[in-house]
Every structure is written in C-alpha cells, then in structure tokens.
## 1
Amino acid sequence: MLKVDNVSKNYGKIKAVDNLSFSVAPGEIFGLLGVNGSGKTTTFRMIMGLLTPDSGKITLDGDKIDYSITDKIGFLTEERSLLLKMTVLEQTLFYGALKGMDKDLIIERLDYLLDKFQIKDYKNRKIKELSKGNQQKIQFINAIINEPSLLILDEPFSGLDPINVKMFEDEIKEMSKKGSMIIFSSHRMEHVEQFCEKLVIIKKGHSVLDGSLVQIKKDYGKKNLLIKGDVDLDKLSKLDGVVSVEKENSHYIVKILSDDYVNSIFKEVSKMKNITMFKVEEPSLNEIFIAKVGESYE
C-alpha cells in the first residue's frame, strides 16, 4: 500500500503541498486531481523519491521510498520525456536498465508490449520518426516495462485516438486486476469517473475533497433532471428547488438542490405537453470539481 501521510513541501515562501494525506491499496485506481499549480507534480515527485517532504512521510508497502524502492514504480509524465534520436529498442533498454532489469527480460517485455499495442514493426525505428500517438504508446510501454507495483499516470491518453485510448484502458484495468496500485490524473473527468473509485482533489497544495466517488456525489447533494418535451421554461425555472435550466440538444438539463424536490417537480412537469423523458442523474465529477475548485478543469 502507498501511504501519503500529512505531507508538506515548500519552495521558499510558497507552500506547494500542504498537509496532504491519502492512501492507495493494491489493485486500486486512485484519482489525484487539481488544476495546474495545485501541487500534483510536486506530489508525484515526492512519491517517486525525487523530492523530500519538509514534513510528513510517504511509504510504499511500509518502506520509505528511496532508490531501493523506486524500481517498483512506473511513471508516465504529462510532457513527452523520450530521447528522440534513440530507437524504440535503445530507449527501452536504457529505461529498463535504470529500473535494474536484465537486458534479455527488457527485450522480452518490449516485444510482448509492442505486439500488444500493434506497433511491433517500430522496434528499431527512431522515436522522432513516430507519430505523437505512437510516441505516447512508447512512453507508456517504458512506464510499465518493469511491471511496477505502483504506476503513476499523468494525462495518459494525450494524443491518442479512441481506438488507442481503449488499448490503454484495457492495459490499465488489467494491471489493476493483477494488483498494481495506480494513481490516475487527467483533465478528462469522464476518464476519472470511469476508472477511479476513490480520489482526492487538491487546490493550492491541500485537499478540498476526498473519498469514494459514490460518497462524494451523495454528499454533494445536488441532482440533475433530464427532461424532454414541450417544457414551460418560465414555470419550470420558478419551481421550488430548481437552480437552473439549460437547453442541450433535444432536451433540458434542470439542476436541482437535492432529490427532495424530484417528486414535486415531476408532478408539475407531468402537466406539460408531450413529455417523453424525465430522468434523475447524479451530478458529473466535472460539475463537482468546478464547485469545489472554482474553475473548469479543461
């Protein structure tokens, strides 16, 4: 298990991370979210042992993270971190060696993963000759070449089309089933909702929201109603509990204070003409994020 326990980190007078705590269990995909400058990158660097916390501690399976532990960690950065003049094989041999892997094992794993990601013909191609999407595949392969027990993914789907996103998704889920601890960070909230059962949202270095996604949505309270038909907008917007009414494509999204108002709103809406849909939905994670952080994650 990864434990981040009351960790803080300052850069001079700037508090980058402020008393942050969370844990990630084996097989768990955990969301770490925040806008740029929130402290995510500093947190990642402390987890990998590249920075030392000013206070608090970080442990992996009970051990302090140092160079004897980092071989168990894989990291896919948001920025491209490939050596463009190297071939795919040279790049992976270099990275695998840094993780203490035997050359034959590196090549064996590389051949398996290149075939799995449908780029086996690129083994001896230079990185700079590959498309952005295929470079992202190589970066991901390098991050998991050592079959890490802890994998940190920062915007893993950058530059990928839907087919390749599905490949990444399948591999991430497979690693989770095998027991890897995975920290997932993305600007795409639908991906976070798809993967993460637990998450923490940080702002200016400290947690503003954490827990299970189900409980977070429950505690948020507000609901969304999806209504389709000949809606009396003026009447609907004035009903008790209605926060706002928005038109989206062929239906309306009605934000309400809580599900306590659903029955009374339904009673009034049912009197309107040609109502073909009335559906109660949980708020999106993006909606909750904006409410807690005060700005869009896009």
Note: Residues 162-177 form the longest helix (16 residues).
## 2
Amino acid sequence: MSENKLFKDYFDEALARRMAVMITAVHPQFPATAFVNQIAPQLDGLEMKERSTVFVQALHDHLPEGFAHAWAVLEAALGAELSGEDGMFNDGWHYWPIAQFIETFGLEDFEVGVRAMHEITKRHTAEFAIRPFLIHHQDQMLAILHTWAEDENPHVRRLVSEGTRPRLPWAGRLYQFIEDPRSTLALLEKLKDDPSEYVRRSVSNHLNDIAKDHPRLVVETCRRWWQDGSPERRWIVQRALRTLVKDGDPDALAVLGYGPPQVALLDFAVTPDPLRLGEKLNLAFTLQNTAAHEQNLVIDFIIHFVKANGQTSGKVFKLKTAVLPPNQSLTVTKSHPIRPITTRTYYPGTHRVQIQVNGQIIGERSFELILP
C-alpha cells in the first residue's frame, strides 16, 4: 500500500472490479457488471466506513439470497490465509467489506456466521464483525472463544482478545463488558503466556481498556501476573498499565517497582516566558536523590493549557524513566514545540508546567502564551 494514498481511497471502482473477478471465478452467474456499476457512482465524498458499506450492500443485492448461501460463495472465493502475524490491514485490507458483510448479516445464521468469522480473521480481521454476536449471543460466543483461545492460528487467538475489547477503537462499545469485565478477563488468563507477541500485544491493550473503568481490578490482575512472570508476561503488564502510570496511579506504579519518590527538584526553569505560538517550550531541571537507596523513577511533565472559558486542563507528556543511585543527581532537559495542531485550540494566558515523578507533582512553573 502506498504511503501517499489515503486508506479510504483503496475502496474504489478498482476494488469493486477485483472483488467481482474473485467472486465470478467461483460463482460464474454473479452479475459482475451490475455489481461494479452499483458501487462506482456512490463512492465520491464518502469516508472509508461509508465506502465499505456501499460494497456490503452491493454484495447483499447480488449474491444468493440468505446469509448461508451468500457466505458459501464468499468462502469459496477467499484467497490464502495470511502467512505472517501482521498484514491484516496491509495484505488483507481488501477483505474489509466481506468482514463487514458478516458483521451486518451474519446473525441470520449463527453457526455459519461463526464459521465465517473464523475464516475471515485468518485473512483480515473479525474484531468488528464479532461484536453483534457478543451482544446478542454472549454466552454462546464466549464459550466458542474459550476454544478459539487454543486455536493453532495466532490470528484466531488474537480475535479472542481484540474482538472482546470493551473500548475497541473504531468499534461500538461492549457495555456489558465495560460494566463487568470478568468474562473477558477469563479469556485473557488463557492468553497471557501466548507464544505470539501479536496476541500478547492485544492482551495488553485489552487490559488497558478495562483499566479505564476498573483500575483496581486491573492493578490486582497485573500484580498477580507480574509475580514470577516471564519477561514476556511482564511486558504485557507494563503496556497494560500505561494509562494508569501516565495518570500517576500509585498502585500501578508500585506493581512496576516505582515507589513514592524521595527526590529534590533543583534549578527548574521554563523558557522562554512569554512564549509565542510556534516557538518551543524549553524545560530544564535537576533531580537529586535524597534517599540512601537506589530509586526507579518515571519522570513526566504536565502542561495545563488554557481553555476558551479561561480555565485550564492538564495534559501529561512522557519524559523518561531512570534509575537514580543514592545521593546522586540527574539533569533533564526537554524542548516541546507549542505549534498549531488539529487536536488542540490554543488560547492566550498563563499556562502552568508541572514535573511529575512516580505519579507525584514535585514542582511547578508558569509561562505566558502569546498568540499572533
């Protein structure tokens, strides 16, 4: 895939023709011309998901009636499984409308829909398709996922974790698991020592999702996993706790070996002041270990940006981790650009900068932001 082409633009007339050829090869009576002609005029001005929906409707209109019959054709048309653990969006992106077809119509026949997800996830992903099945057939689907957690294919095992994430990006939320995540935690227990990093990364992201609603449950789970855990399992724990660590949660930090900091903040300077939009904010400070023992430190800085109403809102930025020997010091410098970005509107006024170590604020300075 080209880096200069938007992902949505791959869902075009050329893909419609490619899919028509793929389907006609196994189902000669497929109306390829009508399929392409239905799709092509609708695509201009649509975003990716909307374009995919156009493909899904055309598949529904031109494949044999009934999901089981339609899937029999699509299954026969599927190409080879992904050869590696990555590639679901790079090599299998063209299967997205087929996965969305399962998501939209698969509940018409539960058993066929389950088989369809098992096949498509080995070529693309079923992490979105599976969510209606979890909503409407939760117990049946969870039982199947417990067997899939032991599947030989890492894409299927990853689906067990990724498809049940309560706050999966781009997907509707699974509110039953947001409220009570114990069902999905039982699946993650089966995957926490999976041989595939691809699967373990999903496990860490899933736990990070749960931590947004049940931080204490995730901390206790991670504490248990950390004890006598392999380096691979501890890697999961570190990634799973990343949001809690960024928020300065003391229990999460303690799991990773970061206790209450015993440090002195020296020579903390914020320049320039005032700062004009487009310039770089420069931070410089020294941390002095005041303890008689070595300390593991997570060092962050927080900028409290002025909002439209004159109030401020803090944003945490990662600085570094460090091991500071007893009675030793560490000098830290950082240049942070304050320039226009699409995700933030800047307002003039007094902005505060705080240094956070192991979740605790240890010092603060301010600067005036001037807009053109």
Note: DSSP finds 16 helices and eight strands in the chain.
## 3
Amino acid sequence: MLEIKNLKKSYDGVTILHDINLAIDDGEIVSILGPSGCGKTTLLNLVLGLADADEGEILFQGENVLNVPMEQRGFNIVFQDYALFPNLNVYKNITYGLRNNPSISTRQEVEDLIDLLGLREHLDKKIEQLSGGQKQRVALARTMVMKPKILLLDEPLSALDGVIKESIKAKIKQIARDYHLTTIIVTHDPEEALTLSDKVLIIQNGTISQYGKPDDIIQKPENDFVKEFILNQLLIKKNNIFTLFRQGNEPKIAAQVG
C-alpha cells in the first residue's frame, strides 16, 4: 500500500499542496485529476522523488520513503513526451535500462512484455518511424522491464486519440492487472480518469476535492467544483454531447453527435 499523510509543498513561498492525505491499495489504478496549476504534477514528483516535501510522509509498504533517493525507491515513470532515445532502435530502447542491471528481467520476461504490448514487428525500427501509440507502448515496455514497484504515468493519452487511445488504455489496464502493479496517472481529462481508473483523486488549488471510485464521483459529487469540472466537461467536450451510462460495473462515456 502507498499512503500519503499530511503532505505539504511550497515553491518560493507559495503553497502548492495543502495537507494531502490518501491511501492507494496494491494493484490499484489511480488517476490524479484537476485543472492546470492545481498541484497534480507536483504530487506525482513528490511520490517519484523528483521533489522534496516541506512536511508529511509518503509510506510504501509501511516504510517512509520521503527521504529515500529517487533511484532507491523503485518507482518508475513514463513521461508525457516518452523520452525515448532516437539513435536506438525499439529493442535497444526497451532493454536500455538492463545494460547495467541485466538480472532485473530475464530474456523471457522481456519477450513476454514485447508480445503483451504488440511490439514484435517493430523491434528493428527507429523511434522516428513509430506512431504516437507505438512510442507510448515502447515507453511502457522500457519502464516495465525494470520491474517498478509503482508505475507513474504523466498524461499518457494526451497526444493520442480515437482507436489508438482506447488501445493504450486497454494496455495500461492489462499491465496493472497482470502484474498487480499500483499505477498512478496524472491527467487533466475527466473522461480518461473515469474510464481508466479504479479510483480518481480530484485536486483543486492544492487540496483534495474528492477521492473515490468513478461511479461515486459521477453519481455523488461532493462539492460544486467536482460537479462543474467533471460533469460539465463531460457534457460539453469538443462540441459533442456526452451521455454517461453504465456497462457492467465500469462507467463509460458515449458521444452523441447532434
């Protein structure tokens, strides 16, 4: 379990995060959702270890990792721009982190990830030859071969659309389930958060507005900000009208073009 207790962060005297408290169970997919400047990326950076907190605790399996260096936490991130090496082919990008740590993943485990993410036919290609969705899958594979304890994703779907976006969402879900991997996603898009996650954390001005299951957020928004930010954006997105409906236990969103 990952627990965040009384976490606070300021930059240049401006408080970015105010007393953040939440718990994430092992294997859960949690999206951190909110408008630009709300503090969601700062929270991601604190969990990863890219930034230091002013106060509070970050507990992983009961151990406070707040003062543990980033490279020793075992948490890995897929950045929004993928950060792939353009001079290396797909296979060498995937296995780059294993050069100095070859025992982390076996050859069979690497091969299994390649097949899981549908990258077999692209292994000899240069990065410039790949589509956005293919680059995202390579970035996921490169991170997964290092066997992260927690997977962090920064706006993983922002550069994708249509069928490609749905394919990557399915892959993220499959990885989390197959590897029982706690996954934390930063996004500004309510649709992505509600259809991809087990739980959604909504942040406004550095504080938690609501934290819960997508169904609860849709049906029981806890304040006006959640209603306006979530429901209005879903109902008026790209000039289409969106209808919320259920399919099984998972909320879905269908577009009706009027």
Note: The CA atoms of residues 234 and 242 lie 6 Å apart.
## 4
Amino acid sequence: MTDKIIVHGIEYLIKRTKRSSLGITIERDGMVTINTPLRADPKAIESFVSSKTIWIRQKLAYKSQTNRERVRRDFVSGQGFLYLGRSYRLRLINNGRVVNQKGVSTSLLLHNGYFELLEQEKERARKHFIKWYKKQTEEQLRIRIPRYANRIGVEVKDFRVLDLGNRWASCGKKGTLNFSWRTVMSPIQVFDYILVHEMAHMLERGHTKNFWRTVSRVIYDYEEHKIWLQEHGAELDI
C-alpha cells in the first residue's frame, strides 16, 4: 500500500508494510520513501518526517552532488566501458569479424583487454552492450548465489536481470531476486554486497538492526561498498 505526502516542500512516498517502526530510504533518483507499519497514524508519520527534515535535505544534496553528471556514451574507439570495476577501451572493427572463444561470430566481445564492436553495429551499440552486460550478470549470479545462500540461510528460487532504473536490485516475495544489468559494471566486492543485501531481505524486509547484522556477518566491510555505490553509482551506465 503506497501513498504520497509533501512536508516542507519535499515529496515523500509512503510505503506501508508489515514492519514495527518507521524508516527512511532515499533512492538514487532522489525519491524519498517512508517505510511505515500498516496502521501508522498519518500525524505520527508527518511528525517523524518533520524531525528528519534537515538530515533528509543533507542526504538529497549529497546525492545531487555525487550524481550530478550522468554518463554519456558516443561508442567511439578509445572510449572506456566498465566491467567488474575495470575500464576497458572500445575498439571498432572496420573489416573482418568479431569471433568469441567458441568460434561464433558476434557483434560485441571483450577480447585482449578491449571491447571489440563491429563498425556497422555502432548505431545499435548500446543494445549490444546491454545484452552483453545482462549475460555477464547472469553468469556472476549463477556462480555467487550458491556461495552466499547457505551462509545467510535462504533459498533463491530464481533470478532475473532487468533494467531497474535507479535501483540496483530487488527481492521478490517468492524467493526471486531481480538484478540490474548495471551491477556487473561495479567491482566484484560491490556486486557481492548488492547480492548479499537482497538475500538478507529474504529474511528481513526492512533495514532493521537484524538485517544489517546479517549483512555484516557475511560482508564485514559492507559500509565501504555502500559508500562506493553512493559516490560512483552514476558512473555505472552507458
């Protein structure tokens, strides 16, 4: 159940769930969500928000500063593209073929430290990159989900790699994880933090003390990765 309110000029999305306390989430796009118990009193919500106004404005200003410039790609030779935290330059292939390890022709390939793209496919470059990133994200999830499932004590029944806009990932109610293809552009330690974060939500829907305790038990330095995402999240795009 969701609704919206405006307090001191700031719009808030009210999300009512089966939780026992009030909480605040600020998304990358600046949307502020107030997570509340199902029967929370509207006046209590407004009072809570008012008491956090200064903190919220500081967070919004910080996000605006760190995400002030979105990545713009022209898909020209020499331009860098991220994969697992490293930047690889693009090389346009004018003649010949781009062939993967299985000898199959493809439009885009990471080879010998370069992304190789057929010149004639430049107009569809973004589509090819997204397809490639989706495949890499799927491969990383197949490898890494089993690594953490037993440690956290959950069963991931399925996962999907999608374009989630300003979200890195989400946890479905039936044991399905949704991941943004952009996540595989981050360093693998950050990728693991995002994965563990969502798997922990399978036990705790909100960002409770127990939730963060679960995350820290698996990734002790999770706060560093959380800050990295806040500071570099805008770079994970094409």
Note: The mean pLDDT is 86.
